Amino acid sequence: MPAPAPGKNRKALGRLSLPERTFVADALRTETVGGVLLLIAAIAALIWANTPIRESYETVRDFHVGPAALGLNLSIEHWAADGLLAVFFFVAGIELKRELVAGDLKDPRAAALPVVAALCGMAVPALVYTLVGVTGDGSLAGWAVPTATDIAFALAVLAVIGTSLPSALRAFLLTLAVVDDLFAILIIAVFFTADLDFAALGGAVVGLVVFWLLLRKGVRGWYVYVPLALVIWGLMYNSGIHATIAGVAMGLMLRCTTRKEDSAGPGGREMAARSPGERVEHLVRPLSAGLAVPLFALFSAGVAVSGGALGEVFTRPETLGVVLGLVVGKAVGIFGGTWLTARFTRASLSDDLAWPDVFAVSSLAGIGFTVSLLIGELAFEGDRALTDEVKAAVLLGSLIAAVLSGVLLKIRNARYRRLCEDEELDEDLSGIPDVYEQGDPAYHLRMAEIHERKAAEHRRLAEVTGRASEENDGPA
Description:
single chain, mainly alpha, 2 domains, two-stranded parallel sheet, two-stranded antiparallel ribbon, 4 strands, 70% helix, disordered N terminus
């Protein structure tokens, strides 16, 4: 049978290129650490809000600070949700820009799989919530709550259960989360925008134009951009559009492609080329993952949780819809979208993976946490009791999804460990994993030399062993 033409049949979730694998490993390393901190913050919030010192939690959370004259006299909870999460969405904007110009989303054919999977992974949970709401005569305002995926929390789960998930599946999860964030941003901007203040909105747009012009002129210095970013954020907040949109807009403006000047370091030294977007993301991501998101979790996840309250989650249509949306809707939506894409295109699943692996990762994406908590606050703003109940549903749904995916991934962990060992193997000590050098003639020459040296060592060892045996068997 003749070999298929190049590009005719593509492998879905196949091995990443070496540069992409390196980038994904660096990004996920920070997200994993941030996810563990996020998990700790969420647990701390639940303990703080469910002990005799609960009143102190509410006092701190509801404490107002900020200049009232600028419309920014906000509670600590609002500063965390509207201010700190702007940093999170700024990083999300840079990630999205990089994926669009240099990552998996650059090629429309390669982008089809994660985009379709992410869309189905948002549409099906929204549909599940709506069906539960309609049949139970509940509010449909929370339809968007179970549509989000929290990549940091998902990676924290992977770190806790100790599974060796292959880089292709981790990259798929990361790309899913990036696309998921994009649509979450659009949902927040379109469906959760209050009455617009066009003067403030116009000022924010002017600020963004200035931000873009400064970037294009090559102006450098945090002392220029940070004050300007704060002004843009304040104007966006007062415009009625959720302030996190300002962070996304600024992130999307950063250049994420490399040029010759990007490789010139201080004094004209040549350095590894990194685009401005990658450099800024490298600096800001630890702030986002290590401070902004955990603090948001600390002041958002603190809901009263009792046996009766958890039981009510399964009786109220709004909360039941959130749980089923995260646990069932996410898994079915992402798995179904991936399967349909592979079924109706020329893409086929990588030979190293099986469909149960895709379903396990789809289940892992049911951990909604950060953005789900944010959308829950926006959807039921003004109804504190229902907001807390929906938050409890998000926590419970994310926990169930984490346990389910953890069990499924553990079943296949031995297989994943072998794949990861193959990806890391570097027998010729070149610094590059062997799987990325197998088409290089120089690699095969080095390996032949290594195998010949090993064979010679074995022959010498056999000769020495043989002589020692003869001496021992000789006459006393």
